[in-house]
Structures are given as C-alpha cells and as structure tokens.
Design a protein that fits this description.
Blueprint: E1 2-6, H1 11-20, E2 25-30, E3 46-49, H2 55-62, E4 67-70, H3 77-82, H4 84-105, E5 108-114, H5 137-156, E6 160-165, E7 167-169, H6 182-191, E8 196-199, E9 205-206, E10 208-210, H7 211-223, E11 232-234, E12 240-241, H8 242-253, E13 259-262, H9 277-282, H10 291-301
Parallel strand pairs: 1-2, 1-4, 2-3, 4-5, 5-6, 6-11, 7-10, 8-13
Antiparallel strand pairs: 9-12
Helix pairs in contact: 1-7, 2-4, 4-5, 6-8
The structure holds nicotinamide-adenine-dinucleotide.
Length: 302
C-alpha cells in the first residue's frame, strides 16, 4: 500500500513511518519546521521536503497514494498564541488543501485533531459528544480541521477519520525547546539534574498516551480503511496530575527532584481525561502501553 504521511519527520509522524515502512511504501511530506530527517532513522521512506500549503508539492506527494495520514501542523498552544495566523494557515488551510488532494486521488484520510478542542468545558471524562469550548487559536484550528474532514465526508463522500490525540509522549519527542511537552521537558531536566518547571500548582491532570499506542491505532486505521462520522478520542481514560508525574519520575530515577512552580500558562486547560468508549469499540484488540513502562522507555531514549 502507498501511504503519504504529512508531518512524517515530526515526533508522532516519524514513529508512525518507522512502523509503516516495514510493510508499505511510505512517502513523507514535511517542511522540517519542527521535524527532522534524522527522526526517520535508517528506514526506507521517500522524504519530500516542502509544505502542504504548496499545491504542486502536495499534488506530487499524493500521486498514487491509497491513504494519507495528515499530521503536519503547528502543533502547539503557545506557538498559536504568538502567531495565530500562522497556526490557522498551516492547521486549517493546510488541512483543506490535503482534503482536496485526497479527493483528487480517492485516498482515505486519517487526521490528527486534539483534546484541546474540549477547552473550557469542565465535564470529565471528555466524551466526543461534549460541547467543544476551545480556549486557544491552536484548539480552534484543530476543531476547524476535524470539522472540515467531517464536512468533506458528508459533502463529497471522502473517507475520513479524525483522532483527538491527548498528551502523546515517547521517544523522538524533542525535549529541548521553549514549547516542549511536559514529559520530555520534565524527563530531560531530571536527567540533567535541573529543576522541573511546573506551570500552575501541579494538580492539573492529563491523559498521557505512549506513542507506540498511538502508532498502533493509526496504522490499524490506515490498513483497515477505518472511517468515522464523528471524531474519535485517542487516549484510554487515565488521569495523572503533574505532581504525580514528578513522583513517578522520582521513583524511576531513585532520587528526589527539585520542582519550581510558575504561574499557569494562558490557553492551558486544568483537567483532561478521555472517554475511550468509541476508540475501544473501533479497535478492540489494542490495549495501551501504561504510563510507567512508557516513561521508562522514554527515559532510556533520552
Ligand atoms: P511535531 O511538531 O513533531 O510534528 C509536526 C510535523 O509537521 C513536523 O515534522 C513539522 O515539520 C511538520 N509541518 C509543520 N508545518 C508543515 C507544513 N506546512 N507542511 C508540511 N509539514 C509541516 O508534532 P507532533 O507532536 O508529532 O504532532 C503531530 C500531530 O499531532 C499534529 O497535527 C498535532 O497538532 C497533533 N497532536 C499532537 C499531540 C501531542 O501530544 N504530541 C496532541 C494533540 C494533537
């Protein structure tokens, strides 16, 4: 099967490509804004450097593909607060471009949305039917992207499925930039003997999902040409506070860690926990890698 992965040189994309390339022809379209060719390691993929916003580049990348996994995005709340327009262009206009390209070649589309769409809706766990109250430009862009996918399904019969990723973590996730996700930031600081920075009081909770679990779901969705009328949460309904995450890291490393508390960040939500019922019904054979072994593998990668 010939599969295009947009954003395939990024964290989730490269993990996915490494798995898909064992059995399929994989094309990666990535502008390398946050992704790195080295993430793809030694696997045999056709890396095309360019933007999903460039029509001729996108058309070439889509030639003959049966499926597109669309992960390319400006994937960060703080970046979207700094430059909402850029986040809109890449995440929304870029998605419309990918959906149009998929229509042209009859490809199935698997799309990355985000738990951030639930935003200020405080209800837990987050079931897909909840009212979305996005609180950052990033969250709005993801809600728009998944809504476009649904509209292309209804309007043009395009086969799509949008997954709402929660906090994905694991190897290849960059630990060393200003917008690093919490697990690589904590783990990297802990390994270097630096204090861990917690924004807020650390009681906020997240539904952490190990990247191999995400890769299994995405790969199965691609090969099974799975579609869904509504977006699907991609997390298994666990809930860990940042303070508990610090404690887990202390247990894994065998010593106390220094933590400094800073004011909460704009756009961050307080609690996040998926209702996994739809995911479990679509992918009953997949069980998640739990947090502790996932953390252990991440620490040994760092
Ligand atoms: P990432 O930054 O590692 O990957 C994004 C990739 O997209 C990068 O390789 C980047 O270079 C590429 N890219 C950006 N703009 C592009 C463009 N115009 N054309 C082509 N490529 C472009 O981030 P990630 O964590 O791997 O995220 C992958 C997807 O999952 C994103 O859509 C993100 O919004 C979504 N997501 C991730 C998480 C998470 O916890 N990591 C949570 C929710 C949603």
């Amino acid at each position: 099967m010939k599969i295009l992965v947009t954003g395939g040189a990024g964290f989730i994309g490269a993990n996915l490509c490494r798995a898909l390339a064992e059995r399929h022809d994989v094309i990666v379209l990535d502008d390398l804004s946050t992704g790195r060719p080295a993430n793809l390691g030694p696997v045999d993929v056709d890396l095309q450097v360019g933007s999903v916003l460039d029509p001729s580049v996108l058309r070439r990348a889509c030639r003959g593909v049966a499926a597109i996994v669309h992960l390319a995005a400006v994937p960060s709340v703080p970046r979207s607060l700094e430059d909402p327009r850029r986040s809109h262009d890449t995440n929304v206009t870029g998605t419309v471009a990918v959906l149009d390209a998929a229509r042209d070649v009859g490809a199935h589309v698997v799309l990355a949305s985000s738990s951030s769409v639930y935003g200020r809706n405080p209800v837990l766990p987050k079931a897909e039917g909840l009212v979305c109250r996005p609180s950052s430009p990033y969250a709005v862009s993801k809600l728009a992207a998944e809504s476009y996918a649904a509209a292309y399904r209804t309007s043009f019969g395009l086969e799509t499925i949008a997954f709402r990723f929660f906090n994905v973590f694991g190897p290849l996730q960059a630990p060393d930039h200003a917008y690093a996700a919490v697990i690589p930031a904590f783990a990297s600081a802990a390994l270097r003997g630096l204090p861990l920075t917690v924004h807020g009081d650390g009681t906020q909770t997240r539904d952490f999902t190990y990247v191999d679990t995400v890769v299994r779901v995405l790969a199965q969705a691609v090969t099974g040409r799975t579609t869904s009328e509504t977006p699907v949460n991609l997390a298994f309904g666990t809930r860990t506070s940042l303070n508990d995450l610090v404690r887990l890291l202390e247990e894994e490393l065998g010593h106390r860690l220094k933590v400094r508390y800073r004011p909460p960040r704009r756009g961050d939500v307080q609690h996040s926990q998926a209702c996994p019922d739809t995911l479990r019904s679509l992918f009953p054979a997949i069980s998640p890698v739990p947090l502790r072994p996932g953390l252990r593998r991440t620490l040994s990668w760092l």
